Amino acid sequence: MRLVSLTRAATHVRAASTTATIAAALKVGDALRPRRRRFTEDDVAAYAGVSGDRNPVHLDDAFARGTGGFQRGRVVHGMLVASLFPALIASHFPGAVYASQSLKFAAPVHVGDEVVAQVQALHIKATGGRHIVKFATKCFMDDEETLAIDGEAMAFLPTLQLSAEAIE
């Protein structure tokens, strides 16, 4: 296994990476391959419909700019942005079960902003045939300069081996 430093080395010590023939196993300190996403108006509308969260700061640009106080307009639902974390973990570890998530919303994400979700293993405990892993979860904007979401997650992983799809 080869470890590759991330650009934000202070935040994420190392990234799990492999060659095509060697399977990588998650270790404390490893960061999963980040996930980038730009949220669209359609994403926000679909989430509002599914969740029932029709707060006008998400759906009405004039309201968001005026009463909401968001100069850049509509804000993406925080939980929609946070949904990148379980998706990122599950894409690396099929069969993962998300157990908990704590979140601090540090800055608003606006419709059209590109975000980068990052996940790093903080603690790993084997239990039975599964592994309980505590992850640091962060979401950045503006080329990874502005922290939008900070938190921690717990997930049950069936294995510590990275999926074939996760290998670069």
Automatic annotation (TrEMBL):
Domain annotation MaoC-like: ranges: 31-125
PANTHER family: HYDROXYACYL-THIOESTER DEHYDRATASE TYPE 2, MITOCHONDRIAL-RELATED, MAOC-LIKE DOMAIN-CONTAINING PROTEIN
Regions crossing the membrane: none
GO cellular component terms attached to this protein's record: mitochondrion
GO MF terms held by the record: (3R)-hydroxyacyl-[acyl-carrier-protein] dehydratase activity
Gene3D superfamilies attached to this UniProt entry: Hotdog Thioesterase
Classification via SUPFAM superfamilies: Thioesterase/thiol ester dehydrase-isomerase (SSF54637)
Domain of life, source organism: Eukaryota
Pfam family of the protein (one): MaoC_dehydratas
A biological process term (GO) from this entry: fatty acid biosynthetic process
Name the record gives this protein: MaoC-like domain-containing protein
